[in-house]
Amino acid sequence: MDKFFTAVRLDEDLCKGCINCIKRCPTQAIRVRNGKAVITKKFCIDCGECIRICPHHAKLAIYDSIDIMNQYEYTVALPAPSLYGQFNNLDDINIVLTALKRMGFDDVYEVSGAAELVSEMSRRYVQEHKENWPLISTACPSVVRLIRVRFPNLIEHLIPIKAPIDLAASLAREKAMKLTGLPSEKIGIIFISPCPAKVTAVKTPLGIDKSEVDAVLAIKDVYPRLLNHMKEIEASQEIEELAISGKIGISWGGAGGEAGGLLTDSYLAADGIENVIRVLEDLEDQKFTSLEFIELNACNGGCVGGVLTVENPFVAKVKLKRLRKYMPVACNHLINVEDEDGYWTEAVRYEPVFKLGIDMKESIAMMTKVEELCERFPGLDCGSCGAPTCKALAEDVVRGVASEKDCIHILREYIHKISDEMSMLDLQSRNKKTE
Amino acid sequence: MNDQIQLTYHVSAADFTRAGEASSDVKSKLKQMGVSPEAVRKVAIAMYEGEINMVIHAEGGTIKVTITPTEIEIVLADKGPGIADIEQAMQAGFSTAPDNVRSLGFGAGMGLPNMKKYSDEMDIKTELRVGTTVTMKVNI
Known about the structure:
In chain A, strands 6-5-8-9 form a four-stranded parallel beta sheet, with helices on both faces. Chain A is built from 15 helices and eleven strands. In chain A, helix 11 (273-284) links the parallel strand 10 and strand 11 (293-297). Chain A is α/β, with parallel strands linked by helices. Chain A has helices at residues 20-24, 49-53, 93-103, 111-128, 141-150, 164-180, 197-203, 219-236, 247-251, 257-260, 273-284, 313-324, 360-376, 390-399, 408-434, and strands at 8-10, 30-33, 36-39, 59-61, 74-79, 107-108, 135-136, 187-193, 215-218, 267-271, 293-297. The termini of chain A are far apart. Chain B is globular. In chain B, strands 1-2-3-5-4 form a five-stranded antiparallel beta sheet, with helices on one face. The A-B interface holds A 150, 152-153, 281, 284-286, 350, 352, 354-361, 363-365, 367-368, 371 and B 1-5, 7, 20, 23-24, 27, 29, 31-35, 37-38, 40-41, 44-45, 48, 67-70, 140.
């Protein structure tokens, strides 16, 4: 499987070749070439910033269509807890879960239920592995991919526990098979996701060999369908008791929730990809000596801030708070789950995608050329060349994928020079005629 | 063609928000050059500690970093007060950091010991009221 699969696509007809997404991408993965934005897949971490910023709506996340349900004989919906924060005046999560069944799903398995098991496993793991403090959460696929390409020294700090969605999918599949007696291929485990990073995590997982999730739907696609059913359910009060999670599980939907489930005070929770990068840089420089755990979310506000959600993330967070107010702390405990099921089976490896040369000698020569080019470029970071910064263009030139004259300022100098030379030639030939 | 690259940084006086910019820049360049993560970590920590020392004690100075295929050399030169007793300064926990700096969380006294720990070679030349030059080498 393509180890650099990404879930962001461009609608070329809508792309105007402006500089918004290239400037915003945290890994400088995008360039404008021939008037259209192009993503270098191995640099992309699926954070969704380009989707958020594009004023022409040319950037899209890919995910499955709701029709994919028809491919399976028995379907189970796995709603992310961020789904519950999308609705106004909701006071019972079972209304949303019942509506999922009315939509056509045969059963529902809350991801927040598995999240509580992950919290319990994490609490134990953190206590047993002081040598790797602070330990970093691996629930956000964007963050894990960022660390594997840019922060190799932090790979040993990653908590090797499955993300709640992966644990939920295994448990949901087991439950469905036991209940129906159907073979695995006929059962559709379908995740309802707030973001495209989870699509990538399902198609090309890190830490596990294969994902147990069959399809990923977008919250924003499912939302309008659910609304209609929810109105009927509220009116008829025919609500099924499908909820299985407590405070901790529901909190996972917003930034700080996962860390809260660790029941420790020595943690840091950061959200927003630029903030995440700052934390990781400082962590690498060993500036945090007394923390046990670090929760990192690529999206502002946490998962409720994912690009496939409907509600403003900060409003959604408040709604989650209200929903869990009267819930017990946690409803899921590790009695029935074999611990091994919850752990990663594969290590994450450093992928030095940003490396300039194949060895030190070549890298030194290339870096020297980059520095020279940076001196020649005007340093305006204007983006007209298609690269986000002058330094990025210098790197592109040295890598052989761009030319100095892509810089319009260098090009203008060059044109002046040619124009001067042509005037000289013209003058010389006129002088010859008069001789 | 030169088999090395030299980077020069001017560290300004007592601007704590910018302290660490030079070591950050070196760290990102080393990563891009494919230097091993372990060597990058050592350089980042050793150079950061040296840079902070320059800001806290010497009102800034100049840092020259030379990168060759086999090693990274970091030379931190300042015109600060100099170090009165090098052996004492190398003791873990000993600090001459002024109070305003300690209140910001610095001055734990681990700077020089950490620099020694994370570099493969370290040399200090100092003269009271003239300045200090610290040279560190990290093998690739």
